[in-house]
Specification:
alpha/beta, Ribosomal Protein S5, domain 2
Amino acid sequence: MRKYEENLSTEQAKEGQEARLPQENEHQIGEADPEEEKGKGAEEIGSLNRIRRIKREREIRSILRTGKRISRGPITISYLRGNEEGVGFAFLVGKRFGKAVVRNRVKRRLREIARERSHILPSGVDLCIMAAQSAGAGSYQELEKEIVEIFEKLREYEENRS
């Protein structure tokens, strides 16, 4: 039985009468409970470390053609200084990689690692993170280790360049 069905009457309503009277602490199905939602708002949503995704093919091709590459294990990152503030990410996992389940798992892992570790990177960098087939066999911790090392190497290179 669902939470909102607990207090439903099984009796039929008489003509001209509501099927049931709502209780004072009851809210409509699909609506948010006002007590549960108190305190949640834009400030909580804004505090999540969101990443800027690069989705346009033109931007991705530009990064791959003119950007510099750093490889480590099954991960290759191509990066380019962007015009925008913040860090932009594109995640590339080809069909040769395997079935959709495996590709999507690797992309989810890459996105989460990038979200958690984007503070390591210098601002204004756009990255394309590409995974080799062996990335699907590795664990989350192995992927994270490789990506963190690449991010630190990239930050070090950009600091020395400036």
